[in-house]
Amino acid sequence: MRVKKISFYEAVSYVSTLTGKVYTSLSVFDKTMQLIDDWDWIGKLKKEKKPSISLPSIDPFIMDVFVKKPHEKWLNEGISRETMDLYQIGYYNRLDCITIPHFNINNQLVGIRGRMLLEDDINDGRKYFPISVEGRMLSHPTMYNLYGLNITKNNIKRLKKVVLFEDEKSCMKCQDYYGANNFSVATGGSALSDYQVNLLLSLDIEEVFIARDKEFENHESVEAYEYAERLLKQAHKFTPYIRTYILWDEWNLLELKDSPADKGKKVLEELMRRKFEIKTKEGMII
Questions:
Q1: Model confidence, pTM
Q2: Which domains does the chain possess?
Q3: SS3 string of the chain?
């Protein structure tokens, strides 16, 4: 890189050419990928049936201990009272946290997470954490659910597309941006399970937009390249069945750790416009 004054990706490409090694196209997500236009063979692939795993439900009356009032912190971040009411956001005095109930696709309460507000909790890595009420921990395995799907499932079925965020707030912001056309869900973290993939495919979607938090400052850094590889692994869970896109910020529209929804509707739509389409592994330049 120093001698030739080239980027990390160009350096890897150069070394791979010299050594005869195979590498993935290194513009991270190369828009000049060889695309597979013949979709007939894809139609022959069988989508997974709707997953049968069911999480234990929680009596919704347990939420009566929370203050049913939108929190000022999230109001100041631009999430409306109407949206927080829709997602049943509350406040728990005992733990000083915003309460975020998680429902399954059938609108059954399966868990409650807290957005902790005390600095000690945040500094100890408990910014988002399952809460306990009367000695009962209201946690659930997030890999077996998708946050917000109970609210947006009909929109997703109608529009035949879904945008996949990490955090709950992104879904709420999209609700304020798009209302009845909100087609977002969140995985509750950076991982994506096969169960979650199959759950979305069972809704007969045709497109998925993977909109993960920004985990790099320089899009030509080693960290960005490694992060791109992780996102490609998630994308390839969908590519045999539907059109798959990744939202990737090479233009510094976002700050480190931002969700694509954090900087407003205009920035989100710009990232959607500049999205990268990911094809099956067979269709990638290597």
A1: 0.82
A2: 8-46+146-283 (3.40.1360.10), 60-140 (3.90.980.10)
A3: CCCCCCCHHHHHHHHHHHHCCCCCCCCCCCCCCCCCCCCHHHHCCCCCCCCCCCCCCCCHHHHHHCECCCCHHHHHCCCCHHHHHHCCCEEECCCCEEEEEEECCCCCEEEEEEEECCHHHHHCCCCEEECEECCEECCCCHHHCCECHHHHHHHHHHHCEEEEECCHHHHHHHHHHHHHHCCEEECCCCCCCHHHHHHHHCCCCCEEEECCCCCCCCCCCHHHHHHHHHHHHHHCCCCCCCEEEECCCCCCCCCCCCCCCCCCHHHHHHHHHCCEEECCHHHCCC
pLDDT along the chain (286 residues), means of 10: 72 72 52 39 48 80 93 94 97 95 96 93 87 89 96 98 97 97 96 97 97 95 94 96 96 97 97 93 42
> How much of the chain, in percent, has pLDDT values that exceed 90?
70
